[in-house]
Amino acid sequence: MTTQKLGLGKMVMYSLSVSLHVPFLQFTNAATQNGVPLHLLPLPQSPVGAFKRSCTAIREATKFLDEPINVKDIESTKANVTIRTFEKRIASTEEDIKAMEQGDEYEPTYKPIVTIMYDRKTMDMTYTAYDKVEGHEIFCKVMEHYNSICGNANIQQFRETIQNAFKQYGSIKLMRSGNADFIPAKYFREWENFSRFIKSFDGVVLQEFNMSDDAENRQNLQNSLLDNVADSVEAEIKKLGKAKGSSSLAELIAEFGTALADKQNSEKKLGNAALTTMLERYRIVMEKVNLYKELLETDMSVVESQITVAQEQLVKLMQDAA
Question: Phi and psi (nearest 5°) for 13?
Fold first, then answer.
């Protein structure tokens, strides 16, 4: 009945506002009320994690300035205190530029702007400004960012939640460079609950379009699945420190095998835990292939055989290491 109503499933597109700041308790309560599993929600940001992330965010916001700012961790002499110091690079002199042009040794100089102290017990934030104007401005920005993410679900948490739901409900990307995902009709009821939950917050725009069951859509979905599988193999090759150079799935699997062998022959070979994790990722890929084989009623034996080759390579390495 569900499959007839939806056809093959739904195409989903979403956008999020940077102004999203929802208390995490409200976020989890809304998920529970709508029957959404809480494991789809990311863990809330810890207070000290929010402080460190806020400092990093302000640093990242200034990284493209002519004179960038660095953030350094300072070991505190006080218990429960985390310290971070912001330093600004001093503009290069003519002599510095000449040294760089001649290939001479050159080390840029930084001056401190502000030191911010965070008390992990009281969650208070204090600062010492070495530059009264810029130091105060940085502190205010860190405090503003901290207040927006500590104890709140913001745009990052919302995006992660949606991506977790996509994984949970068997989605594939419809276009490699686009923002459109497909949810199979099999997961309509679960997705309906999730959609109601996530759209209940101001700042979330979720667009859903039914995909009818016709030959063109079936072919497009099959092509998208093959692209998604290839992308997953490419990601594994990159994790092994290699860059892919092939396009077909068979060639990518061969490249993965070579990259895996090279990695295991190096000093930084993968341990059993890493191999197990990689094997699990391939299991998830195979699970998705089987899901779409059933949905599209098509032969996926070639794809299945290639994924099996990758799995067998990993299993053999784990057995040899045992």
Answer: -130, 145
